[in-house]
Amino acid sequence: MTNHTASNPPAPVRHHPMEIAPETWVIQATHGEGVAPQVVHMNSMVIRGAEPTVVDTGAPVHREHYLEDLFSLVEPEDVRWVFISHDDADHFGNAAAVMDACPNATLVATWFLCERLAVEGFPVPPTRWRWIADGESFDAGDRTLHAIRPPLYDSPTTRGLYDDKTGVYWASDCYATPVEGGTAFVGELDPQAWAAGFQAFQAWNSPWAAMLESDAFAVTCRRIEQLRPTTIATCHGPTIEATHVQQAFDLLRAVPHTPVPPQPGQPVLDEIVASIEAAMTGATA
Ligand SMILES: [Fe+2]
Ligand SMILES: [Fe+2]
Fold it and tell me: Which of the residues 100, 119, 208, 272 has an alpha carbon 20 to 30 A from that of 156?
């Protein structure tokens, strides 16, 4: 029997793509499943419209499954757009591989995003870029896709993506929550666990939220609320279906004035190290 520890993680648990709206799929992945009590989704999305659009590209650690799932939904030659919400590895981490596999795709980024990716040696040339900043849109054939920054984020380059045909909003890091195990929709969660996880994720990922004045933040939140999205998909949590969108809006507006739970500290690391050492001792005994 294998002891799974932080230094010896199990293979990622396999989750399959989930259709959340017509021709709109969340490619699901999780981090920490089978190891930690709390699991974080590492999702991305595909819009299989007239001009198929990849929305974020998953984490490098999931590359094999990610590419398998993506190309089970769309042929590489058909991919027209690859939208990157921001320059964190769990969002752009497979973008180079996707662009390499998809000869007809254009990378949808911004000037600042490309500048920040350049220092990582990002290999996609400017001839394949298009810059779509917060508040700007692009035509994807049978729909217009709008780049709109979510109210909370962890990178200055962040833009979400709103599809005016389905009403789906891709929120990047926002509206997320950790889960006990891979979960497709928030309706499957215990409501209190959702609320607690939602607060922890938002506050930890955007600690500056504690500095926000609630009324001013509510104005920012309204920018997304006024879109009246039918569905909110997020990289780091289950998809928020229509029945739960209003509650997600309420939870988000409360973030600045809701207590922030503490993060695991050194005692937790001590436990992890002890478990690794115990497993190593057992392996050599
Ligand atoms: Fe991020
Ligand atoms: Fe992220």
Answer: 100
| Proximal ligand: closest to the CA of 153 | 1
Ligand 1 centre to CA of 172 (Å) is 7
In the predicted structure, residue 5 carries a pLDDT above the cut 60: no
Query: Cβ(239)–Cβ(232) under 8 Å?
Result: yes
Encode pLDDT of 148-194 as tens digits: 999 999 999 999 999 999 999 999 999 999 999 999 999 999 999 99
Task: Say which residue the tokens 């993680």 belong to.
Answer: 9
Whose structure tokens read 């509650």?
A: 247
Going by C-alpha positions, the residue among 53, 37, 33 that lies closest to residue 45 is 53
Q: How far is the CA of 235 from the centre of ligand 1 (A)?
A: 9
Q: Is 167 exposed, middle or buried (0-12, 13-18, 19+ CB in 10 A)?
A: middle
Alpha helices in the chain (DSSP H): 63-73, 89-92, 95-101, 111-118, 191-205, 214-225, 245-254, 266-284
Share of the chain above pLDDT 90, in %: 91
Helix (H, G, I), strand (E, B) or coil at 195: helix
Strand-pair partners of 26:
18, 45
Q: Cα separation of 39 and 36, whole Å?
A: 7
CA distance 190 to 177: 12
SS3 115: helix
Cβ-contact 176, 205 below 8 angstroms: yes
> What is the Rg, in whole angstroms, of the alpha carbon atoms belonging to the chain?
19
